[in-house]
Amino acid sequence: MVKNIAVLTSGNDCPGMNACLRAVVRTAVHNGLRIWGIHNGYKGLLADEMEELNTRSVGDMIQRGGTFLGIARSEEFFEKEGRQKGYENLKNRGIDGLIVIGGSGSIKGAAALSQEFDLPVIGIPGTIENDVWGTDYTIGSDTAANTVVDAINKLRDTASAHRRIILIEVMGKTSGWLAMTAGIAGGAEYVLVPETKFNIEQICDEIREDYAAGKRYSLLVVSDGAASATELGKMVQEKTEIDTRVSVLGHIQRGGSPTVQDRINASLLGEKAVLAMKEGKRDIVVGFDTGVVVEIPINEATNNRKTLDTEFIRLSKVLA
């Protein structure tokens, strides 16, 4: 029976991780479990950087971005010998199960621990790219989308004033969810994502025609997995001969106080993960399916690729 559990954050930080950690800790304490926080992700696991947490440990946390436990890369954890060191650190403290908050790669690392050392693990998807298979939502994605929309709103003002074309580069190496969602919500004329092909010549022709008809600006949201906005901007400037600027949002998308949706959903996922582990469940990822918390087999979540909603792609073209 699980009595001691540990939790870590891994991969890249995102708004809502602290809200999730708060829920994990307080749910564990409420249910009579001991809860340990692992600092600096898998690197901290291997270095035995752990401390027991209580309700006060997570006070004044729900509104904060980032993760108070910290995140760090660990090449050593990629090797079985490294994972064994982490497992032994957990067992030396009497820890019976591990909760990992992070993206697909981080959850895959937890799955490896479970398979190799028979350690119960549960994953909670936390990534602004919303690209974990089997769940409609990942922690941080809503806040990041709102951050991008806020940037689009501001860039539209200056684009209109100068009759400029502005390309806005957002994160999304393999998934265009963030670019597509923010592009639709922000009213961008074009959204370029890794999942679909685009013809820059055709886009430039359409922009020239729109400007000839009196249009004052054009906004293109570019997922960094689709193309470099900087390089595309040079091409657009050359082909349209219209003043073109580029704004690369970068890591600003990962920061900030989480939205209400990210706070509530992260809290729900944190609670459900602890309750599932208390009930003896293991090797699952907790996520959302049409607003309901569901349990996804961990190997399915990590070995399948989430696809971009075709309705989003269609809508972005209709509303362009």
Describe it for me?
With 320 residues, the chain is α/β, with parallel strands linked by helices. The protein has two domains: 4-140 and 258-303, Rossmann fold, CATH 3.40.50.450; 142-254, Phosphofructokinase domain (Rossmann fold, 3-Layer(aba) Sandwich). 43% of the residues lie in helices and 18% in strands. The protein has eleven helices and eleven strands. It has helices spanning 17-30, 41-46, 80-92, 104-117, 141-162, 177-186, 200-212, 229-240, 260-278, 298-303, 310-318, and strands at residues 4-9, 34-38, 50-53, 97-102, 121-125, 165-170, 190-192, 218-223, 244-248, 284-289, 292-297. A seven-stranded mixed β-sheet has the order 3-2-1-4-5-10-11, with helices on both faces. The protein has a four-stranded parallel β-sheet with strand order 7-8-6-9, with helices on both faces. Helix 1 (17-30) links the parallel strand 1 (4-9) and strand 2 (34-38). Helix 7 (200-212) packs across helix 8. It is elongated, with a radius of gyration of 22 Å. The termini are far apart. The mean pLDDT is 96.
